[in-house]
Amino acid sequence: MTTVTLTVNGQSVTQAIDPRTLLVQLLRENLRLTGTHVGCDTSQCGACVVHVNGVSVKSCTMLAAQCEGASVTTIEGIAQGGQLHPMQEAFREHHGLQCGYCTPGMIMSAIDIVNRKGTALDEETVRHELEGNICRCTGYHNIVKAVIAGAEAMAGGMRQAAE
Amino acid sequence: MAVTSIGARVVRKEDHRFITGKGQYTDDINRPGQAHAVFVRSPHAAATIRRIDTSAARSMPGVVAILTGEDLAADKIGGLICGWMIHSKDGSPMKAGAHPALAHGKVRYVGDHVAVVIAETVLQAKDAAEAVVVDYAVEKPVVDVASALAKGAPAVHAEAPDNRVFSWHLGDKAATDAAFAKARHVTALDIVNNRLIPNAMEPRAAVGDYDSGNDAFTLYTTSQNPHVARLVLSAFIGVAPEHKLRVIAPDVGGGFGSKIFIYAEETVCVWAAKKVGRPVKWTSDRTEAFLSDAHGRDHVTRAEMALDENGRILALRVNTKANLGAYLSTFASSVPTYLYAPLLSGQYDIPAIYAEVDGVYTHTAPVDAYRGAGRPEATFVVERLVEVAAREIGMDPARFRARNYIRKFPHQTPVIMAYDAGDYDASLKKALELADYKGFGRRKREAARRGKLRGIGFSSYIEACGIAPSAAVGSLGAGVGLWESAEVRVNPIGTVEVLTGSHSHGQGHETTFAQLVSDRLGIPIENVSIVHGDTDKVQMGMGTYGSRSGAVGMSAIAKALDKVIAKGKKVAAHVLEAAEGDIEFKDGKFSVAGTDRSAGFGDIALQAYIAHKFNGQELEPGLKEGAFYDPTNFTFPAGVHICELEVDPQTGDVTIEKWTAVDDFGVIINPLIVEGQVHGGIAQGVGQALHEGAVYDPATGQLVTASYMDYRMPRAEDLPSFVVDTTVTPCPSNPLGIKGCGEAGAIAAPAAVVNALTNAVGHEDVPMPATPQAMWRACRKAAQPLAAE
User: Fold this and answer.
1) How many CB pairs under 8 A join A and B?
2) Per CATH, which fold does A86-162 belong to?
3) Separation between Cα atoms, residue B139 and residue B119, nearest integer Å
4) How far apart are CA B527 and CA B541, in angstroms?
5) What architecture is domain A2-77?
6) Residue B787 has pLDDT above 50, yes or no
7) Closest CA of chain B from A95, distance in Å
8) CA B448 → CA B225, B442, B652, B788, distances in Å?
9) Which of A87, A97, A79, A26 is nearest to A57 (CA)?
10) Which of A95, A102, A143 has the CB atom closest to B672's CB atom?
11) pLDDT per residue over B382-434, tens digit each?
């Protein structure tokens, strides 16, 4: 066993773990943050995407032990004070989910796309950037709409914050 | 809080929990003291098990138990079943081998279940599973229908020595042969409908729990139909009687058919929970899902269409070999038979049809229903034949289709189905306009100037949904009835819970079903909860598949709502001191006809429960009604999809430039959700046509496409935004006029893509999946239209 200390959704946590433990296992099994999902075993599907130090990471591909001292944000941590994140709102508004299983990873990836590519996204960019997230239900049509709308809403939020 | 009507684009009620990470899927459930199961699976496609040595594994850290097929048999746990009896042409019943949940002496596909290791943690169970030594005598496998049917091929099961499970037929052979004899033109095609792996994003999972104090079991499982699971586990497999077995299917992350079936893993988990005295949890990893989820499609077909001198279809003759895999899964036998051949008439008036289907055992994973289940295979046969026939006789494919459309309803086809309503011309007309079919020639020439081959393809599909009238399916061999149940519980303050036997695994029932209730009772949608997926809450149900939850599940709710309103009128008559016959119910109010006296729905609900205003001996207190609804017919959604694409002859890469879908789903409850269903279905159909294909190595029987690195799932960049529209002919066969929409895209899309690809390259030799490599070859084979222009 080894010990890891990290911050998850703003809370400091210390856990004794089997050194083989993946970040996603730490989140789901030790911390019971079951919003982060596992959809494959080859880092292809993106259902497990979280942010580590502000950057999107497939949590099935990172050892928990690698997260010593890191700050991890999961789908449970993006709403602020009962207010949904604009990207969460956009997915609901545009019917960007059906079974909901890929959704946490999609939303976390979408926020990361906005962080990297800015808030004015076109369809081609979004489709290309979603390469690492697989959805079997929606045919991506409404996910793409949701990401573009969510990015615009985030721009609004950033403008408000700046004013 | 407004009343939310049928037809409104209501944003989904269930989404909040999914977008905040609060959904509860089976793997999110943990029971106190649970142990973890990992299956030892066969690495061989065909082998005899000489010995299973668990001694080293048993002493590994954390191991609780290792169980094998012998333990199952000792506890008299029966095998998995196939619930649909098919009789061969000669009248003999299908030849099915046993399907034990853990192998007895033989393994028959890579991934077959040999033993289960139960340990304190998943990692410990995996370590111990590696240490189980199985001594196999490896045998030669057969993985495709041609080799399985070859003379001298090894028999997968002794019960079917030539690997034919059934040799079935439908239709009038003599009439069909006679029509072919007088045909002016015959179009013939050899068609392979590629094998697919469903790949719901949530892998299957199960948690078995046993309460020794009450001798009762609970199974949490990723099921599309928890009541059917309970019925099969109880009545056939014999885990526990139904009143001692609770099956809960919580949030389920997609199904597409693959979660209809009752599999070995949930059987073992629920049985083992009692055996080891602890809850037992299993979660599939993706590789296991590829290996052991039931696969779909996998047909090899010779199809012929006979035409007269005017381009009218005279007859259709089809011979299909369907790969059923190594064991018969729950509904495997129905898919290539009664869900397939009865759809071979398509949207066309075809006087004679004859279909022969052989169901074939192979050393591969079981094959069963996958989105569309038989209907995509039928549509692909019909729509490829129609397209090629039109090309061969030099007629525009749209015109050829219209020439042969059925226009009078009801229409009895020669293959069982009686189509009740449709307007195929309306869908075609709208689709041609939306796709700008007239402008295609210009776009093709423009593409050629850029060195691209542009193609357009149609799919004028039909499906049979709203599955299905119980007596009808019973006469065709089904072991169950396919009605649906509903219970409407009105609370004393007028809020409502609806208990439904349908199950939602992405379809949005919590919203659409609530819309129906809101519409009918005139109460805000926020005041309605939909309860499903728990056999202790919902008495009985048949679950969700075959686009049945709207047409059948909601019809049951509508029937129960009618009873609630009728009872409410009785209560209102007492409250408003009027004759029952004078009470009207409209917009959430009971009123006395011709007066201004009225009472709201909530007031009457309260009066029903406090029972002060009527004699409880004459009128029962309370407001709760149930209904079972058995449909009178299948429903027949139909439409036209048009795919326009470009092929790069240098690389074989295909880009879908435009997708137009015009579907007739009858009455639509929530267009937002229906469009989403169409989008997802098209993506799966495009996946079949361009990307996806399960490949077994013919020499070893290894599944070489067992990960997302090898099995190509459609991704966002592979697809365009879709142009989706509808026409409406209400379905006359259910009270809501609904036809169903869940499978349409997957049924329509493959033929549209291949018709477009073959149009682009100028010949018919394009396989599915039409990967860049396949298309590069197809382009090499083509007479180069670019050079000619």
Assistant:
1) 181
2) DNA polymerase; domain 1 (1.10.150)
3) 32
4) 24
5) Roll (3.10)
6) no
7) 7
8) 51, 10, 15, 11
9) A26
10) A95
11) 999 999 999 999 999 999 999 999 999 999 999 999 999 999 999 999 999 99
